[in-house]
Design brief:
The structure holds 2 protein chains of 2 kinds. Chain A is α+β, with helices and mostly antiparallel strands. Chain A contains 3 helices and 4 strands, in the order H-E-E-H-E-E-H. Chain A starts with 15 loop residues before the first helix and ends with a helix. Chain B is of the alpha/beta class. About 14% of the residues of chain B have low confidence. Classes of the chains: A alpha+beta, B alpha/beta.
Chain lengths: 179, 343
């Protein structure tokens, strides 16, 4: 505006009715587009959440598998430890029994426990003492018993007693015992 | 962007309204990018927007949403001041109740806010987009002259006279005077004066011997005009004459010879206009606030087809070189409105 006292009114080709109509349609269109965009967004977030859930499930499954493996490993370890514990108990009992078997007159210098056998080193006053007091109970336990002697300096005898359990025979005995 | 595209599809309708003393002229110009398409003109015998005028305007505004209604400000309380500085403006006029506008950072036009609101209210049915001061109209109409010379410029319309003095593009003085509506008694007196002066002028009688009516003292000035050796005396002032403008004026007179009549009905009004111009010049010379300078030329933008008497009065009484140009205010307002819109 350079010369006029007043500013010209705003001119528009749209009449008031047309403006109202255009406004109405614009609002409707904006709402529709807005809803569409909102749904698109929600769809996208849903897909993303679904994907994340799937990934999480896979990770959890994998974790569960790993944990189950660990559990089974631990169970095996437990079984093994129980087995070892039992074997140790058995061994302890066996050793206790063994030492119970040894009479006071015979002195053991070494004992070797084998898987299916027992080797004893010691010193005995005589062969008879050994045969009657130690070999007899050992023979009742082991299937095969071998003894050898050699003289000690003081008139006593060193002995080596080698005893084995026969596996097949042991199995048969176990079966019989079970029956 | 969309607005500009839509705007380019429509033609523009410029409606220019000029309110005169007893009627209103409505000019309509249709404009498109290719140029002016058509123009119409209608005179309504009313000074306020009548139903008929509103219907006429609406018949054009319906054609395009891009229509602009321009009104020429003809209110009495208006003027122009030779400065744009607010502190200086107050020394010329109290503008607290006026709407004013600085033009070219050099001078100011103002009008009464009340009149402006009244105008907007009156045209409330159709609305107004532009209101132009007659001083703006005058300055643009004589744009080719105001930058070069010292002269007085006057816009004469039916209801008022607006005068401005420009010295090389610098406004020195401006005044707007509304025409008085004379009652019957005054008309009779003036008619008598008209007869007397007509006799004086026609018969070349020594006016000092004539007993002029005491009531029309102002006319005394004319009594010795005829005694002057006018040709020689006036030639002394004729150095500043505008030959180009005289040529233009002569051409216009030749064209208008057939239309010229001996009808002296304009005499009263022309005399009143002469008095107004004379008063304005006196005011310009005497008021110390205005930087006065000796005036030799007066350019008149004539919208009312003033008679030759006015020119003669001014030349004989005021020793001015008078140049009269007819102005088509409708077209001028149309040009201004287009300028405002940057077209």
């Amino acid at each position: 505006m350079r010369y006029s006292y007043i500013k010209p009114r705003h001119k528009t080709p749209f009449s008031q009715e047309m403006q109202l109509l255009v406004t109405f349609f614009s609002i409707t269109l904006i709402m529709i587009v807005g809803t569409y965009l909102f749904l698109l967004y929600k769809d996208y977030t849903f897909e993303r959440d679904k994907e994340q859930a799937i990934q999480k499930r896979l990770a959890l499954t994998k974790e569960i598998q790993q944990m189950q493996n660990k559990i089974s490993y631990i169970e095996k370890q437990r079984d093994l430890s129980e087995k070892i514990f039992t074997q140790n108990s058995v061994l302890k009992d066996s050793i206790t029994n063994l030492f119970d078997l040894v009479p006071e007159r015979i002195t053991l210098s070494e004992a070797k426990l084998l898987k299916n056998g027992l080797i004893l080193y010691g010193i005995t006053p005589s062969k008879n003492v050994y045969n009657f007091m130690l070999q007899a109970p050992i023979r009742s336990i082991f299937h095969k018993t071998y003894s050898s002697f050699y003289p000690a300096g003081n008139g006593w005898l060193h002995f080596v007693s080698t005893n084995y359990i026969d596996a097949t025979q042991q199995k048969l005995e176990d079966q019989e015992g079970a029956e | 962007m969309l607005g500009k595209i839509l705007e380019s599809l429509y033609q523009k309708v410029f409606i220019n309204i000029i309110r005169q003393r007893s009627d209103t002229v409505v000019y309509v110009h249709n404009y498109s990018k290719k140029g002016d398409l058509s123009h119409y003109e209608e005179v309504f015998q009313t000074t306020t927007p009548s139903q008929e005028m509103i219907e006429y305007i609406n018949s054009f505004t319906k054609e395009s949403p891009y229509y602009y209604i321009t009104v020429l400000d003809t209110s009495a309380q208006q003027g122009a001041l030779p400065s744009c500085k607010k502190n200086l403006l107050q020394s010329y006029e109290d503008l607290t109740t006026s709407e004013y506008k600085c033009i070219n950072k050099e001078w100011t036009v103002y009008t009464s806010k009340t009149d402006l609101y009244t105008l907007e209210k009156e045209f409330g049915d159709v609305g107004i987009d532009f209101v132009f001061s007659p001083f703006i109209l005058l300055a643009t109409f004589f744009a080719d002259k105001i930058n070069n010379t010292l002269a007085m410029y006057a816009l004469i319309i039916d209801s008022s006279v607006s005068v401005m003095v420009f010295d090389s593009g610098r406004l020195l003085f401006a005044e707007h005077v509304a025409m008085l509506v004379l009652d019957e008694h005054e008309n009779i007196i003036l008619e008598e004066a008209q007869e007397d002066v007509a006799l004086d002028l026609d018969d070349d009688i020594d006016l000092e011997t004539i007993d002029v009516d005491d009531n029309i003292d102002d006319l005394e000035g004319f009594s010795y005009i005829e005694n002057l050796d006018t040709i020689e005396d006036i030639d002394e002032f004729s150095q500043g004459e505008d030959l180009e403008e005289e040529l233009y004026e002569n051409e216009a007179q030749e064209k208008g010879t057939e239309e010229e009549t001996n009808d002296n009905s304009h005499f009263n009004e022309d005399y009143q206009r002469f008095s107004m111009i004379q008063d304005a010049i006196n005011h310009f010379y005497k008021d110390e606030r205005y930087e006065s300078n000796f005036l030799e030329n007066i350019y008149i933008a004539d919208y009312t087809h003033v008679s030759n008497d006015l020119k003669r009065y001014l030349e004989d009484e005021m020793f001015l070189n008078v140049y009269i140009r007819s102005i088509d205010i409708g077209s001028e307002l149309y040009s201004l409105a287009k300028k405002e819109l940057g077209l």
